Amino acid sequence: MAELLSLAGVHTHIGRYHILEGVDLIAPEGELTMLLGRNGAGKTTTLKTIIGLHRASAGAVRFQSRDLIPLRTPEIARLGIAYVPEDMGIFAGLTVRENLVLAAREREIDDRRLKWLFGLFPPLEKFWQLRAGFLSGGQKQMLAIGRAVIEPRRLILIDEPTKGLAPAIVGALIEAFRELKRAGSTILLVEQNFHVARSVGDGVFVMDTGRITHAGRMAELAEDAGLQRRLLGLSLDAHQ
Amino acid sequence: MSDLSAARTMPFDPWPPAVLAAAMLVPLVWIAPSTWLILTVAGFAMGMMIFIMASGLTLVFGLMGVINFGHGAFVSLGAFLAASVLTRMTGWTAPDALALNLVAVGPALIVAVLVTGALGWAFERIIIRPVYDNHLKQILVTIGGIIVVEQMIHVLWGPDQIPLPRPTAFKGSVGAGDLVFEKYRLLACVLGVAVFAGLHALLNRTKFGLLVRAGVENGAMVEALGYPIRMLFVVVFVAGSALAGMGGVMWGLYQEIITAGMGMEVMVLIFIVIIVGGLGSVGGCFLGAVLVGLVANYTGFLAPKLALASNILLMVVVLMWRPQGLYPVIRQ
Ligand SMILES: Nc1ncnc2c1ncn2[C@@H]1O[C@H](COP(=O)(O)OP(=O)(O)O)[C@@H](O)[C@H]1O
Ligand SMILES: [Mg+2]
Q1: Which of A71, A88, B7, B126 is deepest in the core (most CB within 10 A)?
Q2: A169 in contact with B at a CB cutoff of 8 Å?
Q3: Same structural domain for residues A112 and A160?
């Protein structure tokens, strides 16, 4: 399958710190690619480098053969890349509707698309006019993902969406990712929850200390407990 | 489904207005009601002028964390521009006819707003832009900026203070018996409320306003949604400078004597107001300005010796209650 996004030998510095030390990664079109790794491995920095919130100091970040590194964040976003940050980045003082209006940019929110989104995340309809700051954590995450998909985007970057959420809501998010895959979205998903990863991942990259340490198919990693232990240092799925 | 004017169900924080009400009612213990009413109108009028001058600065800080000590330059410049326009239009300002007087004040305000807005644009490009990420440098270069503007005023208008007489229809008072209100103060109240209503509508009912509010909360996310925050910032900076210029005209007409240093002097009040209100919050700025104006007038009457310290005291008390100001902006 065609690679929509590719990183080759990407290095990123934050201030004096050398955080990414040569990341190689591809996200094929139409697939959900997992990016796994322990805390501090550099997953968030990788996503921020793609969306331009950090600037790579070396290497190449290509999106449909376009080099993203010289571009500013808004330009990168307007190529069709949506970003759901680890802290969700919800505008708490704005209503659910206003958050989505901004995410749709110059377009009016499409009614059919909105119905589809409400089907995916019913709380967004219920709290349509509520200030987003009053939503629960799970509902905020639904809004954060909703913003990323309110208009069709070429690539969606999502950073640890299930962190700290109740199992029922994690289940709803897994369903939502499956629906997004059915709709043909290309997603790069950072997760710590291995259960989520094995439920939705097509390809998988594992990173540690700023480098990719494993690349392969998610199904293979899910079958190989020894590999999981070696790469991730734990067998998370034992409890899930 | 996506109309921007849909009704908003948002819980409103009633405590700051309650504090304002208390601050208004408590002085009635010592002050006769008719005097109290006059002081209240005077305080409100002063608050409205400070609000107009301060409203842009709170957004400038909120949007990009830029500390602009040079904001007062636009206040001074606005007042001097108005003086130049009005002294050329004495045919309109001298007769006691409201319509004629307004014909003179209109161009004065327009010239002040346009020129200070344009200077704001240059100020942002030349002085602010190179120091976006450095507070210490911002403080130093913006103080440098206001000094340069003050010296330019000395060059263009001379080193002395100059008069800025109110048009005749705005002189004197209305009312009867114990209750007489200066006309000019009533005008300031009306203009201040109009500016607040306009800003409020802009921030709540337009997409640009939504972006500004979103940017105050989380600029990086606004960028990740595809909007360049720096372009928003430039627009806000220019509008804020123009409002400061407009406020400077009002403030100058209120004092009737203007000096190049008036902007620097009023900056103390402006900073108190935006800190009391909560940096980045226009509603908080409005409430803070009213509080500052009222407290200044009540204490000026009850304990003139305390008048200078009263606003600092007010700020300390508010910050002890709410360290982020009356309406803290939620930041991520
Ligand atoms: N702003 C920053 N300043 C300094 N170091 C940072 C900053 N952000 C992240 N880091 C460091 O970079 C490394 C990778 O962080 P991050 O990309 O957030 O990891 P992950 O998302 O995989 O948990 C960590 O060691 C972290 O401490
Ligand atoms: Mg992270």
Answers
A1: A88
A2: no
A3: no
Shared domain check, A136 and A21: no
**Average pLDDT estimate for B300-323:** 92
Distance of alpha carbon B324 from alpha carbon A177, whole angstroms: 39
Neighbours of B8 (CB within 10 A): 15
Ligand 1 atom with the smallest distance to the CA of A37 is 22
The total of structural domains in chain B comes to 1
Q: Are A3 and A27 in contact (CB under 8 A)?
A: yes
The answer to whether residues A211 and A99 belong to one domain is no
> Can you tell me the mean pLDDT for B297-302?
94
Coil, helix or strand at residue A108: coil
Shortest CA distance from B223: residue in chain A: A74
Task: Kindly state whether residues A125 and A176 are assigned to the same domain.
Answer: no
Minimum distance, in Å, between the CA of residue B153 and any CA atom of chain A: 40
Ligand nearest the Cα of residue A37 is 1
* Number of structural domains in chain A: 2
Is B92:B100 a contact under the CB 8 Å cutoff? yes
pLDDT at B59 over 60: yes
Do A172 and A134 have their domain in common?
Answer: no
**Mean pLDDT of all residues belonging to chain A:** 93
For B110-168, what is each residue's pLDDT tens digit? 999 999 999 999 999 999 999 988 899 999 999 999 999 999 999 999 989 999 989 98
Residues of B with CB under 8 A from a CB of A: 1-2, 4, 6-11, 207, 210-211, 213-214, 217-218, 220-228, 329-330, 332
Residues of A in contact with B217 (CB under 8 A): 91-94
- The C-alpha atoms of residue B301 and residue B308 are separated, in whole angstroms, by 12
Range of the domain at A119: 87-149
How many Å apart are CA B111 and CA B288, to the nearest integer?
28
Q: By residue range, what is the domain housing residue B250?
A: 37-175+197-321
Is B210's CB within 8 Å of A101's CB? yes
Percent of chain B with pLDDT over 70: 95
Distance from the Cα of A208 to chain B's closest Cα (Å) equals 26
A216 lies within 8 A of chain B by CB: no
